[in-house]
Design goal:
heterodimer; A: alpha/beta; Rossmann fold; 7-stranded mixed beta sheet; 10 helices; globular; B: alpha+beta; D-amino Acid Aminotransferase, Chain A, domain 1; Dna Ligase, domain 1; 6-stranded antiparallel beta sheet; 4-stranded antiparallel beta sheet; 13 helices; 18 strands; elongated
């Protein structure tokens, strides 16, 4: 089984008629995802390889029962697309679009707080439940079904590490690319809590990178709430410290956001932190029960 | 995009926040002339995209045009935290009664704006935050709600009564600036009350969201003032994410996370990366050629490690891209190539068949890093 998406996922794609939108919609459908609708303003009545296109998400929900949205809308309109999906009652929104203005995302994030909608991203590769459903741009070929839950801030590291896992015969229950934007939807804590509650996940992997304090907060959550084993990987030990302007950033988090600080915080709560992507698969193989 | 202080102050004045009178100078002569206009004495401040200028000798209080000339002479063309100083801000000296500190920025951990204000300006604010955090008032502003009157009351309540009205006015204008200009940080350190009671921003640190620059072409154009390394400029024009580092192994990879990870793995193999270069999606021959050109123009590079994980990008396309790129760019150092993911076997076969004398194909990321490290130290192929 899987978290977030599964056999009952009914997908609407916002921005389906753009070249990226069409390409990934058809890839997701070929993987087995039930793609029921697309939305492009002004193109209602058209179809993309048999997938009906609507003017609004509300129309798509009414006509097709869509419950999940994937967004490929250009950055300047993407936050609006997230709001539209939430307003139409979509339960899960996966926003792939990169480069959305922070102010627009901050507003959308504040609005979503008062709704039942879960957002993944923006600037993320999406979610895949191997052999069941794929919502996003993670190449399905590298995944294999199994009992490891995986959440990552970086996109290409998802591909790299999932590939190492699959090559070592370790399958995944669900892989979540949460994206690395300053203001984003689902974070490590929400993803880990889903995997903790999922009877079909035995172990979880989280991969972080420099910047922000998501990993530090995840460490505190793991210490308090997580009983399943967690393996982590952090990228960016060799990254040069950014030329910081002003003092305010450091005062807020009390952390410099370095890879070393993150690894230390995670190791302090019993998480095994791998030093290379290939080490992740080796550590998981040792720690998987049975 | 981090603005120079004087650019931030231009935005301040446009939004009604008072700043000292000042003039930008790019020569000592211009700085001295500006000082005459300002009444004979002035403060001279280097303009760089970095903080810590006060402690680092980037600010000079001068009592005469001659002192200003000397200060500007010393500052212009000098290096501050790796940044070349090309201009100084020459400002009038004001009679200061009290110094405060205030900033508003995006708190990414909860997606809200965090506003901070303290009556204890003038000292090291980061030290104050650690030693006496209660001296700093903090208020979160929900982006859906915006800044409200009670936020202003809460913040300015920590100030002496006679400064509250003037400071509150500055806070409201900072919020307007933040919203209208898509700023992710507005910091005033120090915000001062003058002997005549008025509240003035002596400094300005403003960061504008890069993703929102399409809404602010005038701000985008200011970037021309920032000195940029010619190699970095070339990379930027080709839409490559490139950062020069100090090592000897040139790195090309796809995706920021994978490239960061590559730097780490190379370090564990005992060498150091000469750069960070994210070629992005596609990895076309065109982009590969530009990337190689950028990296090989660095004389410190003794070996190159091309680390590609094919997701949507197919490794056979990347392999052909590398071969095509090598027809346009001459490589005098070995190129260790690791291709994995979609169509990896086909990509590896293409490289094997080509048998290019400079290409060293390696199957895994760890082995490739070890090989690149060895070759960078002069090991034979």
């Amino acid at each position: 089984m899987s978290v977030l998406i599964g056999a009952d996922t009914r997908l609407v794609v916002q921005g389906i008629t753009g070249s990226e939108g069409t390409f990934h919609t058809l890839r997701n459908r070929a993987y087995g995802t039930d793609v029921v609708a697309g939305v492009t303003p002004g193109k209602a009545g058209q179809d993309v390889e048999g997938i009906p296109v609507f003017d609004t998400v509300a129309d798509a929900v009414r006509e097709t029962g869509a419950n999940t949205s994937m967004i490929f809308v250009p950055p300047r309109f993407a936050a609006e697309a997230i709001l539209e999906a939430a307003d139409a009652g979509i339960a899960l929104v996966v926003c792939v679009t990169e480069g959305i203005p922070v102010k627009d995302m901050a507003y959308a994030h504040a609005y979503l707080g008062g709704t039942e909608t879960t957002l993944i991203g923006p600037n993320c590769p999406g979610v895949i439940a191997p052999d069941i459903s794929n919502v996003g741009i993670i190449p399905g070929e590298v995944c294999s079904p199994g009992r490891v839950g995986f959440v990552s801030r970086s996109g290409t590291l998802v591909y790299q590490i999932v590939h190492e896992l699959s090559s070592a015969g370790i399958g995944q229950s669900t892989c979540i690319g949460m994206g690395g934007d300053p203001v984003h939807g689902m974070g490590f804590i929400e993803a880990l809590s889903l995997f903790e509650a999922d009877p079909d996940t035995d172990l979880m992997i989280m991969t972080g990178e420099i910047g922000g304090d998501d990993e530090e907060r995840a460490a505190a959550y793991i210490a308090a709430k997580v009983t399943k084993p967690v393996v982590a990987y952090i990228a960016g030990f060799e990254a040069p410290p950014g030329k910081r302007m002003g003092h305010a950033g450091a005062i807020v988090t009390g952390s410099q956001g370095t890879a070393a600080a993150k690894a230390e915080a995670l190791e302090a709560v019993g998480v095994t932190v791998a030093r290379t992507p290939s080490q992740v698969a080796r550590i998981v193989a040792e720690r998987l029960p049975g | 995009m981090d603005l120079y202080e004087h650019m931030g102050k231009d935005l301040f004045r446009a939004h009604g926040i008072t700043t000292p009178r000042g003039v930008i100078a790019e020569t000592p002569e211009a700085a001295a002339a500006a000082t005459e206009e300002l009444g004979g004495s002035a403060v001279v401040k280097i303009q760089v995209q970095a903080g810590g200028r006060g402690k680092g000798g980037g600010v000079a209080l001068c009592r005469s045009p001659q002192e200003v000339t000397d200060a500007a002479q010393r500052m212009l063309g000098s290096d501050f935290k790796g940044l070349t100083v090309t201009r100084v801000l020459v400002e009038e000296l004001l009679p200061i009664a009290k110094e405060f500190y205030t900033s508003v920025l995006l708190d990414r951990s909860i997606g809200e704006y965090l506003w901070m204000l303290t009556a204890e300006g003038g000292m090291d604010i980061e030290t104050l935050a650690v030693e006496r955090p209660e001296a700093i008032r903090r208020v979160h502003v929900n982006p859906g709600l915006g800044m409200r009157a009670w936020h202003v009351r809460e913040l300015t309540g920590t100030l002496p009564a006679e400064a509250r009205e003037g400071a509150g006015d500055v806070l409201r204008k900072m919020w307007a600036l933040l919203n209208e200009m898509d700023a992710t940080l507005v910091e005033i350190n120090p915000l001062v009350q003058l002997e005549n009671g008025s509240v003035v921003a002596l400094d300005a640190k403003v960061t504008i969201d890069d993703s929102a620059l399409f809404r602010h072409p005038d701000i985008d154009a200011l970037a021309d003032a920032f000195p940029i390394d010619p190699v970095e400029k070339r990379a930027k024009e080709a839409d490559l994410q490139y950062v020069k580092l100090d090592g000897e192994v040139g790195i090309i990879g796809n995706g920021a996370g994978l490239v960061m990870s590559t730097l780490d793995v190379v370090a564990q193999a005992g060498a150091h990366a000469a750069n960070f270069l994210d070629i992005g999606g596609g990895a076309s021959a065109e982009k590969m050629a530009t990337s190689l050109h950028v990296i090989l123009s660095d004389p410190a590079v003794k070996a190159v490690f091309i680390n590609i994980f094919g997701g949507i990008t197919r490794c056979d396309v990347v392999a052909n891209g590398i071969l095509e790129a090598l027809e346009r760019v001459e490589a005098n150092v070995p190129l260790v190539v690791r291709l994995d993911g979609t169509n990896a076997e086909e990509g590896r076969r293409i490289l094997a068949d080509a048998a290019h004398p400079r290409i060293v194909p390696v199957a895994t990321m760890d082995d490739a890093a070890a090989e690149a490290a060895r070759l960078s130290k002069g090991g034979g192929a």
